[in-house]
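Lecture notes, unit on binding sites. The following record was shown on slide 14. It pairs a sequence with flavin mononucleotide.
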Amino acid sequence: MKANLFFAAAITLVMLSGCTGNKENAVQTSKAVTFDEVLATRRSVRSYDASKTISEAEVRELLVATQEAPSWANQQPSKYYVAMSPEKVEAVSNLVGERNKQNIAGAPVLIVCTYEKGKSGFFQGQQTNEIGDGWGAYDNGLSNAYFILAARAKGYDTLIMGMRDSDELRKLFNIPANEEVMAVISLGYRASEPNQPTHRPLDEIAQFS
Ligand SMILES: Cc1cc2nc3c(=O)[nH]c(=O)nc-3n(C[C@H](O)[C@H](O)[C@H](O)COP(=O)(O)O)c2cc1C
């Protein structure tokens, strides 16, 4: 309850602290958005309004939100390669498979997410437990979750893509070998309302004892 209130307050602050995006796309414009509203309206968007742009300053605000995410021993292994120029966006969109490419057409920003290996899940160079670099992937997912929720709170839409050519993305951005290439995230504005996914019954995924 306390944590939920804190998050709602944090998102309220984010909303009030100067959203420079297309205001009509914000979850709510006249009053602060609640965390529940962010959760309910954040969906994977596969249809983008190509007439709307996003500035580097706006993307920076969202990346600052990722820095609030927890990480193993505060290792902060996540890194982001932001494609914003039309040429770079086109180059990245050619590396996410044909279906994804069609679905993200018109999204003005594509972000390649990586994590630095050998940090999360390691202590003095030694793997701490059986998960190993899986903790880096875990931390990257957490950071990305902050990104997509902060994005929704400010009225943007996203699609996380695990279908991508990591080798070619590595070459495109000169990503060093000590980083694992994870998802590509599109950032833009929905052109139509996204599908609502079905969710498994809670009792299938949680046990109480
Ligand atoms: C790690 C990961 C990889 C994904 N890869 C793709 C992808 O390549 N293409 C796609 O259309 N959606 C992809 N998705 C989106 C999921 O299909 C989507 O999150 C899921 O269907 C639930 O829908 P929702 O995001 O609207 O709640 C991915 C999501 C995650 C978390």
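Take-home: Residues 43-44, 46, 100, 103, 159-163, 183, 194, 197 surround flavin mononucleotide (CB under 6 Å).
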